[in-house]
Amino acid sequence: MSEHEQYAEDLALYALDALAEADRVKLEQHLVSCSACRLELEQLRGDTALLALSAAGPRPPQRARQRLLDAVAREPRLAAVAQAEPRRGWWGWLGWAATAAVIVFALSLWRENSSLKDMLASASSHSAESARQLDELRKIAAPIIEPEAQRVTLVAAKTPAQPQGKAFYLKSRNSLVFLASNMPVLPAQKAYELWLIPTSGSPIPAGVFKPDARGSAVVVNPPLPAGVEAKAFAITVENEAGSAAPTSPVLMVGAGE
Amino acid sequence: MADLYDRYSSVVYAVALRVLGDTGAAEDVLQEVFLQLWRNPGAFDAARGSLGSWLAVITRNRAIDSLRKRRPETDIEDVVLSVAPDLAGEAERARAAEKVRGVLGSMAPNQRSVLEMAYWEGMSHSEIADKTGEPLGTIKTRIRAGLIALRKAFQT
């Protein structure tokens, strides 16, 4: 039986929460990077819902309804607003992913092309129109990457804030912007390291960072080999100077949306 | 929320009651599930599946956690399921339930029992193997085959 077939059987158990711990950890790691298995898992979960149907029984007691509505009335309603509001302005028009790509592009222009900046400064060889566009993009990028920008992570009310990272990667431009929030403080000689997990090969170092007092951090355009296809990104804790390969377990990980 | 409750409370309660066998405990799970939905409506992705099915899955998980006195292993945001028939209407539910019972009834008894042990009793893979004396591999295969059989019954 191929390794992948083995995961397929584990998926059914996983969908039922019946998978043993060791297998579960392995499967969860596999799921990070295997969209086929994630899809099958969703299907299997749907199948388990069918089992639920075989439960026939009495209706819930009448009082339960009022009890719930009372409890709901006492709750503040927050989370839905953060999601339901249509995004306004430039962002909304372009969509989040596209906007992020534009920002990465703008930043790569900004950082790589000091000569371009000089050209802009001298305002001689660069057209007024593209200078204006670049300026516009810089304005949009500023609240995301300027150190004094305020960063707020919204979560459903009453949940503690979780460490979170968002990576925006544009392979064609070799550009990466990474934003972190609510990262726990680290001991003095340690730092977090971001890794680009390629579709084949070992994890590639993608920047070392220490969170500020608020737990936020930004990594912009770390040097990366050209044209790498990213399967996932991950974070480990390393020594302050960084490391060429991960030396500690994965702390946070994410695959593409 | 009142509307959602009216539509889905009987599914949620039935699942919770079947797992827990206790009306008080089932009612608590019922409250918990709907409150969670209220607090976190974004956890359910309407594009992927039906709310009724999603609620059934969440309910069963919470009820099992309660039964086995363990902390929840999966965040509700991580529960994504696709398709599965909508369980909103009483009539649809009754029809679907008939079909499911039919499939379960025509399954080999040792396949059905293994599925039910995992689903309704929240037994782990190894616990089932211990109880039935069957090898781990067989249990795995049977559970997967059982779920696929259910899926096939609803694919026309």
Question: What does this entry look like structurally?
Answer:
Chain A folds into 3 domains: 3-51, no CATH class; 83-145, no CATH class; 164-255, Immunoglobulin-like. Helices cover 44% and strands 18% of the residues of chain A. Chain A has helices spanning 3-15, 21-33, 35-52, 62-74, 79-84, 89-94, 96-112, 114-122, 128-145; strands at residues 164-170, 175-181, 190-198, 204-209, 217-220, 230-239, 252-255. The two termini of chain A are 30 Å apart. Chain B has helices spanning 2-20, 23-39, 51-67, 90-106, 109-120, 125-132, 136-154. Chain B is globular. At the A-B interface, α1, α3, α4 and α5 of A face α1, α2, α3, α4 and α5 of B.
Features:
heterodimer, A: 257 residues, alpha+beta, Immunoglobulin-like, four-stranded antiparallel beta sheet, 44% helix, B: 156 residues, mainly alpha, Rna Polymerase Sigma Factor, Chain: A, Arc Repressor Mutant, subunit A, 70% helix, globular
Secondary structure topology:
The complex is a heterodimer of chains A (257) and B (156).
Chain A: H1 3-15, H2 21-33, H3 35-52, H4 62-74, H5 79-84, H6 89-94, H7 96-112, H8 114-122, H9 128-145, E1 164-170, E2 175-181, E3 190-198, E4 204-209, E5 217-220, E6 230-239, E7 252-255
Antiparallel strand pairs in A: 1-2, 2-5, 3-4, 3-6, 6-7
Chain B: H1 2-20, H2 23-39, H3 51-67, H4 90-106, H5 109-120, H6 125-132, H7 136-154
Termini gap of chain A: 30 Å
- Give the strand line-up of the largest sheet of chain A: 4-3-6-7
CATH architecture of the largest domain in chain A: Sandwich
Q: CATH homologous superfamily of the largest domain in chain B, by name?
A: RNA polymerase sigma factor, region 2, helix turn helix motif
Q: Segments of chain B where pLDDT lies below 50 for 5+ residues?
A: none
Query: CATH topology of the largest domain in chain A, what is it called?
Result: Immunoglobulin-like
Oligomer designation: heterodimer
Q: How large a portion of the residues of chain A is in β-strands, by DSSP E? A: 15-25%
Q: Which class of the largest domain in chain A in CATH terms?
A: Mainly Beta
**Percentage beta strand of chain B:** under 5%
Give the biggest sheet of chain A. Answer: 4 strands, antiparallel
Radius of gyration of chain B: 16 Å
Order of helices and strands of chain B: HHHHHHH
**Helix/sheet category of chain B:** mainly alpha
> Largest interface, and how many residues on either side?
A-B, 49 and 70 residues
- Average pLDDT of chain A, rounded to a whole number, is 76
